[in-house]
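Repro:
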Amino acid sequence: MHTMLQQWALYLPDYLKGVGMTLELTGAALLVALVFGFILALARLSKIRVLDWAATGYVEIIRAIPVLILLFICYYSLAQAGLKLSGPVAAIVGLGGFYAALYGEIFRGAILGVDRGQREAAEALGMPRSVAMRKVILPQAFFAILPPATNQLSNLIKDTSLVFTIAVADIMFQANSALSQNFLPLDMLLLAGVIYFLFYLILSKFLARWELNVQRRRS
């Protein structure tokens, strides 16, 4: 145990660099996922069939492909096709594109879950569809979006552990680098697991408190 703690103290500065990269990737991928996911939701709800079909096809295909394969496509396959992305950019595109499909379904389900009477009331008042969406439907859909959206954020953080396979210096990259030097995989991977656990614990507590505050304000 003492030897393990010594190894942890020795490599902790490198792991903290990986923590910074993991946070940056999570924030950037989340932004891409939220924006693109909302666009996908609107496209699937559109009366324009081409948009609906395109968005539906994207969602169904992306959800069926493992995240790791998407990362390899963004980093290796696009480079072979002449579009070379750096590791971090490929990670953001891959993770953001995958979670956009998931968030898109969350947004679509929440929007459809708003009572039809609210839409009809907005139409009766002469509101354009865009205004009704912004002022009537989305504020009510937000409360249905919140729980599943925060759960997906936890999954996103854990999936960033895959980006070390495309040479991104995240937590797992630092763990792999450390164990290749000291040949102590249990010690190094356990430290990575502890860091991810702390991430999850802090994030879950923060999001749970935020959701509670939002529900209180709504009440």
